[in-house]
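Troubleshooting log. The previous run stalled partway through. Resubmitting the same two chains, unchanged.
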Amino acid sequence: MRCITCVTEKEVLYGKRVLLWLQRILVLYFSLPLSLMLRSLQIGLQSMQVHQQPCHIVYTDYRPTPLQHYFFPSGGNGLYLVVDEKGKFRENSFQKALNALVPPGEGDKKRENGKWQKGLFVGKAGEDSDIFKMVKMIIQRQYDPVICFSFSKRECEFLAMQMAKMDLNNEDEKVNIETIFWSAMDMLSEDDKKLPQVSNMLPLLKRGIGVHHSGLLPILKEVIEILFQEGLIKCLFATETFSIGLNMPAKTVVFTNVRKFDGDKFRWISSGEYIQMSGRAGRRGIDERGICILMVDEKLEPSTAKLMVKGSADSLNSAFHLSYNMLLNQIRSEDGDPVNLLRNSFYQFQVDRAIPDLVKQAKSLEEERDSIILEEEDSLENYYSLLQQFKSLKKDVRDIVLSPKYCLPFLQPGRLVSIQLIKVDDNLPSFSVKDDVTLGVIINFERIKGLSEDDTNKKPEDASYTVDILTRCAVHKDEAGKRTISIVPLKDPGEPAVVSLPISQIDSLSSVRLVIPKDLLPVEARENTLKKVSEVLSRFAKDGLPQLDPEDDMKVQSSSYRKAVRRIEALENLFEKHEIAKSPLIEQKLKLLHTKKQLTAKIKSIKRTMRSSTALAFKDELKARKRVLRRLGYVTSDDVVELKGKVACEISSADELTLTELMFNGVLKDIKVEEMVSLLSCFVWQEKLQDAQKPRDELELLFTQLQDTARRVAKVQLECKVQIDVENFVSSFRPDIMEAVFAWAKGSKFYEIMEITQVFEGSLIRAIRRLEEVLQQLIQAAKSIGETELEAKFEDAVIKIKRDIVFAASLYL
Amino acid sequence: MRGVQLSLSKTQKLRLETALEKLESLSSTTSNNSNASVIVADTIPINYEDGVLKGHGTSEMDGRVVATICGVVERVNKLVYVRALRARYKPEIGDIIVGRVIEVAPKRWRLEINFSQDAVLMLSSMNLPDGIQRRRTALDELNMRSIFEENDIVCAEVRGFQHDGSLYLQARSQKYRKLDRGQLLRISPYLVKRRKQHFHHLDQYGVDLILGCNGFIWVGEHVEAKDDMVVDQMIKSEQENASLSGSVSSREQEQSHTSVEIRQHICRIANAVRVLSTLGFMVTVELITELVDLSISHNLDIHEMLGAEFYVIVAEKEAERRSLATKKR
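Second attempt completed without errors. Output:
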């Protein structure tokens, strides 16, 4: 990296790797001509700004092999071309595809509990599963090789198992596969060759079916990659990882899912992910076009589909964050200034670029505001504020009166109530003193059932209620068949319907009650009731509908109520006296004033964001983190790195603060090497395992020590105003593989430790490899504090874990 | 103060002694007992704690932790180590050092930096004069002497240790360069405290001061750190100009000439460092500039700064300053 004149970077900016590359580009603080092959032009611009060097950007949307996108509705029988190779979206075949979707039967209710992907596998009894049908079809149409992407390792394996009946290879190929497979496995020891993963894989591979995900042994993964490249695997089940970083295209790509679990929910695949994965379809120079099949198992809007299939690449957002290790290394060197690093970061760059836009926005808004000219603005404003006050007071009163405590006894069926009309389309509030109300008849009321069980313990007064009210409604039906109901005044056309409304939407209760027919199902009955309502209304036309008097009828005894009522009266007086109230066009004028006020508020908020972004984006965090380092004694008050800081400098592959604290507290000193290795495994294991068994007592004890240390570190961070969730931080250290790593350090065979835990082989191997990395860093750290015994211990640990299959050399080397 | 040979008059002797006594009493009150000083083979009490980490300068003997060097015991959590007094320089990553080239070897220079070994500066870990990033060729290797020769003074940064314990330096910045037109002073490394800044440009004197962590201190004429590319172009254009007018020599002379004024400043600052180091005071920029100002205010000539009287004044001043500081606390 140091001796190059020109750096060429391929589109490496994907996912977590972005961070790494960005740092590298930043740290290249020399003047280099850069050529970057990027998805995003922004990065190029930033590099230019940082290095003040020309930057050649190769940017293309062109695909040498065009793609065809098909939909495969679950339970259906055929493919539907949705986007052809010219990039045209075919609306009608999209609709056809959706119509072919077999509606989910009553049997698989599971789909609704978030486990809906099960539906994909279940199929109908006696029939082949969808994926089987699909692969069969693909092979018949000679669309192979095919990659089937799914989003979890287990699902991947499961799908491959469904292919058991299929045989895609002839005898020659089978022999070939076997030779390649065993020559690769040769480097494993006899015991490791007996691992179930290894022995189960071969029969599958021989039939031309492969599985590729991060849980595989690295060596198996590589064998499968090689076999796939040789064309010996016709159908590969892979996870998303296969689409990134490997150049292994196929003719066809199948998405077994349109949703992906991203940590907290199932969401649609983003267009960027779609591009990355569908990009594997179509081998250049071999296939005329790539085929991309999406297995759809639920309805989706055409717009969602379009966005997913035809959208552009995800915009690149900086995931840059500060780490203590980075900070310490910057402080340590004389040149290093963390502030400088931040200033040049891509995140900052993105923020900076947004500023001119904001300025423009603010300006146009200001212009708009100034163009609104009002006569007699002062008095109008006065009136406006009075109105606001009046409204809020009214609301207060209503809240008091309509609190369930008072109004529940009066919500009998048949009572006439006036309901506030909520206008859906424009959110401009009305400016007349009177509210827009309509009448309705109470049918029933019920308590809203909360999600928690606590509800039953609550007093009836505290729970919230909805009221079913019969009133005149306008009912719209949109294409999707969803009905939207809006309440309209009695006189307007519309059908009578019963709607449930929250209590807060009721304006007032009248003292009139109607006799309502028992059966409201027929429309006529409801129509008649409404007619009665209008009759009542005309009868009381002279002096309005008699209202329930809050104090006399409803027994509202509250001083705040009385106070509010008095103030309303006073305000009403003021309104009458107000000269401007009599002027015509008052409504329009008030509306104008309102828009003006809103614009002012908007301008204010834009200016605030502008101010905060001109300040360094990470400045506060930087300050807080430095405070943490000082508090824990890693650096002195004048930014000189202390002994502890030097140790933390060496550790970059694990949580540096916790590990350093652990070391300085002597925890690592007195325990056995195996125990130490097993303790350190908590730092590198990140996957969550549901029902992992607890480690044995000695290890458990060590783990609690680790948790205590972690908690202390997290608390210090919190006190120093670093945003951190203490318990979350503590539970980020997982004890799941402690036993397995302990056994491994003891010298157990790999198949033995695989029996101890349920984790995937590949994940465990990756963890142990990372563990070795951490140990190497710890050796350096021990050297820097001059603790020779500890250093020897770490070295011993490295020797103990670095053996056999875990550190088997890559086939590519 | 040990081993200082000063011809003091009687009154000066008395004044110096009182000042030093005062300093001593101040330091004994401020230092607390946990920082007990030890000599070789002293047992360091560890209060029967387990999991004690034994750092530098300690060893275990019959279950006791024993000091292997003379110094002060320091503790960080459970780590116990001995900080040596007046030892050779012990490098740490990120230190700024000043060293003297003692050998030009294949692809590397060897530097004497007051460490137990010579430091190595690889050709590949420094910027080439033309400022271009490229692979080092054999030609570059042949031209190494055009960058640094034997006996050149160089400043660089400690980059790291090899597995065999040898020390590697790096000089990838404009400010790490060959030092000329100035003085090199060698003082005990313990007098230089690690700080954020070791390069100082004393604006009022036009002098650069580099406090190497290894106890080598450079005082020299200020050189503007320039971007290599820009310098290149400037030199080129200058050469073009020069070839037109034919006055190369005068220009070069002007460039290599240091004015008398600056020379005097350099000497004054160097003498200030000498005074501080003989008195055993920490050498920091603040103290140095203070001393220079003091000498000017006392109307002392440069050579008089090394006279007995100035030593006494400095010692008294320091004693006064420290007592004020402790009182404030």
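Takeaways: Residues 1-41, 104-126, 423-433, 450-462 of chain A have pLDDT under 50 and may be disordered. DSSP finds 31 helices and 18 strands in chain A.
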